């Protein structure tokens, strides 16, 4: 069957067109009194459905791909080698990201540009939202120092799999299950491996189906964001803060490209073209978990990463590698301190590096989770937690940017690990219009 010419466009161009159309559509409609309500009631739900479809397959994808990938390693030595290198690189890039954020915010000093009047207005406007995050963070702080370690092991895998917020628990179960498959006789493991391998193939085909709707999904998401955005005067007051965050994220972005070029020999254009659709979806959804299925498809089929490596590195990265989030937490903490006239010592900022690194690991891969963890960073540094209200007005667009960096970091590390293990080959990319023919 011959498809319309629109499908001849590369996927990332189709998504970009959808995003641009959503912005223009919303900008025109909000000029009418009924425009905002129309977008919220009749357009936004389609964006929500698109995100829900991506989230729907996240847990099955992790179970299928991770169990299959670990079982195919054949021995525990290969698993431990891959796991150690993955965690060390993830922690290393996170520390670098936090350090970059602190350096930029200390140079630009955006907090000094916020007047007393603006500070009071922002705190008053977003006091309730800030209070909700503070309460959530307080519960987490009171749970004990080893609570995050305790939460890694679920008491019920069915219950853990019922929420994407428990993705780390599902990963622990999948790794444990995969190790069990390695240790039993191959003839007994074969049927189980066959089941999860089949499950993985089905989920990958579901991704193809969902991506048919990607341009329309991001259209609805961007239209809703424009329609629901707060007044521009608040954005202007926070311009320097946003500039600090975006500048730091841009530096980390180019750092990733440099790492890929240095360690894998792949050109920047090869890497960016391969990962672009996942980046655009991360930007639209603000969720690493929702983007994970697409990230895995792009990394394996378009960047040449072996399935076994991608199925292990990427799900872990979606939950523990939050470089964009950690950089934002560092910038936000110092920015809030500056608005209150606080001068943070080197020791306090060193503590921010440690806390932001650990907090980013504990952040759920869902929109806005980094804001809760930011409260913990503020408390460690002795910064007034009510200052959280200062950054609410502009948090959503910055959340979109930092999620894009998180996903890019996951893809970068997967390529590096694959190269280290000799499992980085040529992409098995199939023309997108051909794949659509197959799906339809």
Largest sheet: none
User: How would you describe the shape?
Assistant: globular
- What portion of residues belong to β-strands? under 5%
The CATH superfamily is identified as Sodium:dicarboxylate symporter
**Quantity of strands, as a count:** 0
Helix content percent band: over 70%
Give start-end ranges of low-pLDDT stretches. 1-5
**SS content category:** mainly alpha
Summarize the structure.
The chain is mostly helical and 440 residues long. It is built from 21 helices and no strands.
Structure description:
The protein is an all-alpha fold. The protein has one domain: Proton glutamate symport protein (Orthogonal Bundle), CATH 1.10.3860. The chain is built from 21 helices and no strands. The longest helix has 33 residues. The radius of gyration is 22 Å and the shape is globular. The N terminus is likely disordered.
Write the topology of this structure.
Elements: H1 11-29, H2 35-56, H3 58-71, H4 76-108, H5 116-125, H6 127-141, H7 147-150, H8 157-160, H9 167-183, H10 186-211, H11 214-228, H12 232-237, H13 239-264, H14 268-285, H15 288-302, H16 307-320, H17 323-339, H18 346-362, H19 369-381, H20 395-420, H21 432-439
Helix pairs in contact: 1-11, 1-14, 2-11, 2-15, 3-9, 3-10, 3-16, 4-13, 4-16, 4-17, 4-18, 4-20, 6-19, 13-17, 13-20, 14-15, 14-20, 15-16, 15-20, 16-20, 17-18, 17-19, 17-20, 18-19
Task: For this entry, give a set of tags.
disordered N terminus; mainly alpha; 440 residues; 77% helix; globular; Proton glutamate symport protein
């Amino acid at each position: 069957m011959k498809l319309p010419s629109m499908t001849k466009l590369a996927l990332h161009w189709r998504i970009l067109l959808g995003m641009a159309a959503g912005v223009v559509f919303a900008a025109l409609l909000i000029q009418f009194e009924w425009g905002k309500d129309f977008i919220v009631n009749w357009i936004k739900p389609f964006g929500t459905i698109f995100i829900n479809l991506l989230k729907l397959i996240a847990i099955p994808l992790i179970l299928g791909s991770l169990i299959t990938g670990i079982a195919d390693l054949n021995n525990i030595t290969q698993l431990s080698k891959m796991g150690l290198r993955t965690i060390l690189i993830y922690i290393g890039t996170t520390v670098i990201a936090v350090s970059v954020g602190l350096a930029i915010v200390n140079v630009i000093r955006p907090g000094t540009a916020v007047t007393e009047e603006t500070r009071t207005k922002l705190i008053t406007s977003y006091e309730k939202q800030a209070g909700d995050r503070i309460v959530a963070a307080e519960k987490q702080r009171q749970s004990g120092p080893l609570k995050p370690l305790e939460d890694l092991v679920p008491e019920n895998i069915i219950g853990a799999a019922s929420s994407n917020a428990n993705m780390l628990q599902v990963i622990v179960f999948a790794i444990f299950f995969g190790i069990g498959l390695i240790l039993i006789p191959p003839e007994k493991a074969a049927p189980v491996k066959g089941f999860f391998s089949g499950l993985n193939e089905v989920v990958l085909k579901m991704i193809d189906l969902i991506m048919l709707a990607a341009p329309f999904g991001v259209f609805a998401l961007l239209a809703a964001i424009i329609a629901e955005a707060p007044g521009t005067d608040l954005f202007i007051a926070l311009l320097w803060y946003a500039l600090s965050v975006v500048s730091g994220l841009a530096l980390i972005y180019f750092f990733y490209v440099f790492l890929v070029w240095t360690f894998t020999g792949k050109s920047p254009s090869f890497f960016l073209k391969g990962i672009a659709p996942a980046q655009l979806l991360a930007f639209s959804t603000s969720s690493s978990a929702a983007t994970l299925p697409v990230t895995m498809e792009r990394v394996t089929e378009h960047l040449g990463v072996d399935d076994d490596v991608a199925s292990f590195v990427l799900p872990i990265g979606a939950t523990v590698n939050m470089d964009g989030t950690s950089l934002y937490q560092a910038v936000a903490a110092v920015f809030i301190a500056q608005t209150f006239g606080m001068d943070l010592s080197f020791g306090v900022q060193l503590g921010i590096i440690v806390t932001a690194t650990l907090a980013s690991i504990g952040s759920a891969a869902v929109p806005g989770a980094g804001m809760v963890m930011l409260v913990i960073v503020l408390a460690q540094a002795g910064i007034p937690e009510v200052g959280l209200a200062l950054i609410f007005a502009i948090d959503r667009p910055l959340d979109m940017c930092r999620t894009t960096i998180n996903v890019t970091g996951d893809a970068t590390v997967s390529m590096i690990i694959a190269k280290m293990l000799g499992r980085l080959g040529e992409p098995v990319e199939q023309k997108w219009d051909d794949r659509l023919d197959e799906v339809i």
